[in-house]
Amino acid sequence: MRKAALLFLLSAAVLFAADSANKSWVNNVMRIVDGETIVVMHDGVPETVRLFGIDCPDDGQPYADEARNYTTILVLNRSVDVQPVGKDTGGKTVARVYKEGKDVSQLLLEAGLAWWSRKDAPSDQKLKEIEQQARAAQRRMWVQPNPVAPWDYRQEQARKRGTEQEETVYVTRVEGTYHRASCPLLRRSVINVLSAVPMSLVDAKVKYKPCEVCNPPR
Ligand SMILES: [Zn+2]
After folding, report:
1. CA of 23 to the centre of ligand 1 (A)
2. How far is the CA of 199 from the centre of ligand 1 (A)?
3. What is the DSSP code string of 44-99?
4. Cα–Cα distance between 106 and 118 in angstroms, integer?
5. Does the pLDDT value for residue 60 go beyond 90?
6. N or C: which end of the chain has fewer CB within 10 A?
7. Distance from the CA of 165 to the center of ligand 1, in angstroms?
8. What's the CA-to-centroid distance between 194 and ligand 1, angstroms?
9. How close is the Cα of 43 to the center of ligand 1, in Å?
10. pLDDT at 109 over 70
């Protein structure tokens, strides 16, 4: 009986949360995390908000700082109208954010500092159109001959980290260097081959230097 009552209360709380999650609010921007992520006060608590439908260059990519600076100029310490559309996979609020009636996602796209997110907003023709216009006008990052989309950049970074983790090199106890399996130094004597220990590149790099002969990955 008490359990049933508790379950009812819990489900009511969840429903209430789901309902209030999509209510819009107006408040000040406290902080800029990156081009498409801002922190806005919400009922007295700072809330991280991702701008809907765009992806700015990531840290490490050209124009990442420009995108962050532009978002700072546009909305930091300003009042914005936040209209949530849902949550991202990390649980962050995703919202259309308006400053003086203008969609901040669109302003970043217009400036050539954001990509239209094909994955998050596939049917948003307006965002698609604005990106195309910025590209045609070669604004900011679109002057680059081959700009890399941030989602491709993230995938490439993840792939690099993955291969580095998996890559195996060989170390011998005597000399403090690491080698490729094919290194002639490892094959020079039977003793060396026997004493060569396989190790992940990540671990080997901590203690050993790369061999000058076989030039293993660094
Ligand atoms: Zn070597």
Report:
1. 62
2. 14
3. TEEEEEEETTEEPPPTTSTTHHHHHHHHHHHHBTSEEEEEEEEE-TTS-EEEEEEE
4. 14
5. yes
6. N
7. 20
8. 15
9. 61
10. yes
Residues whose beta carbons lie less than 5 angstroms from ion ligand 1 = 179, 183, 185, 211, 213-214
CA–CA gap between residue 166 and residue 160 (Å, rounded): 10
- Is residue 138's pLDDT more than 90? yes
User: Which amino acid, one-letter code, is at 77?
Assistant: N
Domains detected in the chain: 19-148 (2.40.50.90), 166-210 (no CATH)
* Structure token digits, residue 60: 């490490």
Interval 171-200 mean pLDDT:
77
pLDDT category at 191 given cuts 50, 70, 90 is low
Q: What mean pLDDT do residues 21-39 have?
A: 94
Which residue has tokens 């049933």?
Answer: 4
